[in-house]
Amino acid sequence: MKLLIAFALVLALAGLAYLAGRARAVRMTLAAGGRIGAVHSRPAYHGAYVAVLALAPALILLAGWGLMGEGVIEGRVLATLDAASQPAPGPDRAALMNEVRGLVAGDLPQAFNPLAPVLAPRYAATRANLDLLAGALAVALLCLGGLWGYSRIRPDFRARNRVESQVRALLLLASVVAILTTFGIVLSLIFESIRFFRLVSPIEFLTGLAWSPQTALRADQVGSTGAFGAVPLFWGTIFIGAIIAMAVAIPLGLMSAIYLTQYAQPRLRRWLKPVLELLAGVPTVVYGFFAALTVAPVVRQIAVALGMSDASSDSALAAGLVMGVMIIPFVSSMADDALTAVPRAMRDGSLAMGATMSETVKKVMVPAALPGIIGGVLLAVSRAIGETMIVVMAAGLAANLTANPFSSVTTVTTQIVALLTGDQEFDSAKTLSAFALGLVLFGMTLVLNIYALAVVKRYREAYE
Amino acid sequence: MTAMPIIPPLPERQPTDWTSPAMQARLAARYRGERNFRRMGAAALLIAASFLAFLLFTIVRDGWSGFLRTEARVEVTFTAATLDVDPAAVAGPNGAATLARADYLALMNEAAKGLDPAAGTLSDAAWLALRDRLLADPALLGQRVTVWVPVRSTIDLLAKGKYDLSAPADSRGVSDREVEAWRWLEREGRLRTGFNAAFLGNADSTEPELAGIGGAALGSLFTLFITIIIAFPLGVLSAVWLEEFAPRGRLADVIELSINNLAAVPSIIFGLLGLAFFLNFAGLPRSSPLVGGITLALMIMPVIVIAARVAIKAVPPSIRDAALGIGASPIQVVFQHVLPLSLPGIMTGTIIGIARALGETAPLLLIGMRAFVTDVPQGITAPATVLPMQVFLWSDDVQRGFVEKTSAAILVLLVILITMNSLAIYLRNRFERRW
Question: Where along chain B do its domains lie?
Fold first, then answer.
């Protein structure tokens, strides 16, 4: 809240700087006779130049303080405790600091942790001091920058060029965020995964057949070491996402696209396409709820009717079926693009030879569009294996290595959620394994995406 | 002149006899195949559409009653002694404050005795209704009035007919005593069903009859606010750079590759980024709309960039050339001509991206936005939850009363999402210009 006020204040001051700079430039222009060309830049550019010089350093300082300030304050406050009573980093520490913050803000009438009331006044004092310091520094920087910019306003000063190159720098900066995000993802995954692989060998992780990440509380408990063989998870992911879901999505999506592009009247098409898009716009948590509450019981009844005694209520089939339906619009729109990209002459030629539409589709259009369709299917697979909510809600947690669609399997994403929600102990192999799973998932989808995009692109070029 | 190739004379060829039975049968088979193929296509679309219809149907069927709440009529005397207030203090200058601190729970227990066979049927928060009534009209102190108070979820569900009463007692999920109590209330005409304003206004609760989506909706609003102020400028500016200023070279290639890949990275990976970087490294507050908003902003930024690039690309070069020709600088061309013209397309992409952020759950699970929050969130750094997360949390709850709440929350979410998507389609159709 304070930070927001500081931001607002800094922005207001920068606005003043803009007005001051512009006013000076207007006076200067009038003094030079008001002729176009007498002064290099229009007054607004002079004003903007002053405002940018005032704003940029102050904003950087405030943003840095906003991001790092809490950590600095926490560190300082915790450092006032003696080493033995300092809580371990992670949830304990976060919980303690939450209580401290709650006490300071007055939301929390009483803290559970005896340390919290001790720390609260120190926290409040440190916070107030450092916030004031940061604010004062920001205002000082703002004034300095603004004054310097103000002093540079001259008729021959090329303010527009300066402002424009600053805007270009801003554009570049915005673009670099995408790279930074990618790096952030890769680094955080790799960093945590390395810590995991110090505890569990990568060979065991990638080839082991047993998955039970529960590390025991007592050393003498059964299975106290935990097992981190992720093969059952990979199999479950592929079984649900790439086999069952695709068995639903490929035929339905492809046939929908064929019907929409080749058979449907334009009016019907105008109505049906939004319906498919609507199917794509439904949040996955809704699909998950539907899968768990409506589809799963039906699937279980079918399994019981088929004579399976151990039919599971969180079967792979229920999750896979619903996921397949979710993917239909995706496959359909990719296939739609691929079929539309086939040159019309090929289709017309086939029809002119007397082939029926279905023969044309099956023998000319689909073979010609096949690379595009395959690329689309690969993208759909990549989306299906990364899908989380449906499997969290409808698939199980038991890591079974089975090809029976009525039994329960678990997936990579389900396990990531299960491992990272609830009570976390940081630095334990259990928590860190989620990041190793994330790394594998990221790698799998990355390879699929790059390959699929390359296939689609090459195919488009072939016909253009 | 080149010599003509010598074509061997063709054997005398009989024209195909299309009327022969063999050819007729063959033709019929081909037409049959054509019809079947066509039907298969229509069937595929029909299956997809009917799945959507079935999904919507079950959610509306289960969810509409979530917007209703059953209330019981209770006669209550606002006696000062039971309320533990001094009538003189109430009449004094701090009367309202005194009344707000009164012991309504005791009064409620007193009043519930009047419902003897059904005394336990009132909601734990029924006393709030008494308080609201008295605070609205302090003159009622000492008088006997009729108040409608919410009932427990089980009675609520009984009144809505959600239990199969013909089932044996041990499998229908409701005890004989509760059924008797409900029958008595119905006989006495003490029940009414009305619009459930608490569902839209309240935050989460452990009691289904008190739980609402108000807290989650506000959490969603805070989160989306952060998402928009980060993702929109970043997305549009990087699209401008990539389309208009990027020099051909490695940097532009790497940025383009990053954006295309980020667009296809599973959403849960962004949750891992948020957990590892924003929470554990930068130390930002857990479960807060701030972290949720930043995480979702990074997730939907590629969507906005891709849409904005398409929209910018669609502006014809002649506009740029004309502006450059009369002396505008490249920056002026972009910000005064290209961007205003491509704004409808950019807005469409942005709305679709925001709709996606609004429906997203998985990354927020990992940054702790599944916290049980019984109060409306106070700000962007306070623990909060969001609408889809509320759906997820309720769907996990074993209490039967939450089934209709879950579906009702889904209905609210779907209405918002469909409105946003329709707005995007409308913008696209209304303002998109074909050059």
Answer: 69-195, 214-431
Q: With an 8 Å Cβ cutoff, are A290 and B58 in contact?
A: yes
Per CATH, the homologous superfamily of domain B214-431 is MetI-like (1.10.3720.10)
Residues with Cβ within 8 Å of residue B292, at least 6 apart in sequence = B223, B226, B274, B363, B364, B367, B369, B384, B386
Q: How close B331 gets to chain A, by Cα (Å)?
A: 6
Distance from CA of A437 to the nearest CA of B (A): 10
Q: Which residue has the tokens 């002149």?
A: B1
Q: Which domains does chain A have, with CATH numbers?
A: 2-157 (no CATH), 227-463 (1.10.3720.10)
Which chain A residues touch B410 with a CB distance below 8 Å? 286, 289
Dist CA B344 CA A65 (whole Å): 36
Summarize pLDDT for A271-295 with one digit per residue, the tens. Answer: 888 778 778 889 999 999 999 988 9
What pTM did the predictor assign? 0.87
Determine the residue of chain A that is closest to B274 in CA distance: A185
What lies within 8 Å, CB to CB, of B376 at 6+ separation is B203, B214, B215, B218
- Write out pLDDT tens, residues B350-393: 999 999 999 999 999 998 887 777 777 777 878 888 999 999 99
Interface of B with A in 53-72 (CB under 8 A): 55, 58-59
Q: Which residues of chain A have a CB within 8 Å of the CB of B31? A: 356
Query: CA nearest A269 in B: which residue?
Result: B45
* Closest to B71 (Cα-Cα) out of B130, B3, B8, B10: B130
Q: Is A136 left (phi over 0), alpha (psi -120 to 50) or beta?
A: alpha
What is the dihedral angle through the alpha carbons of B73, B77, B82, B88, rounded to the nearest 10 degrees? 140
Amino acid at B346: I
Q: A422 touching B, CB under 8 A? A: no
Q: Do B237 and A420 touch (CB under 8 A)?
A: no
Write the DSSP string, B125-136: THHHHHHHHHHH
The answer to whether A438 contacts B245, with C-beta atoms less than 8 Å apart, is no
At position B199, the amino acid (one-letter code) is F
Region for residue B21 given its phi and psi (left: phi exceeds 0; alpha: psi -120 to 50; beta: otherwise): alpha
Selected residue of A285, A431, A455 to mutate for chain B interface (largest B Cβ count, 10 A): A285
| Cα(B217)–Cα(A404) distance, integer angstroms | 41
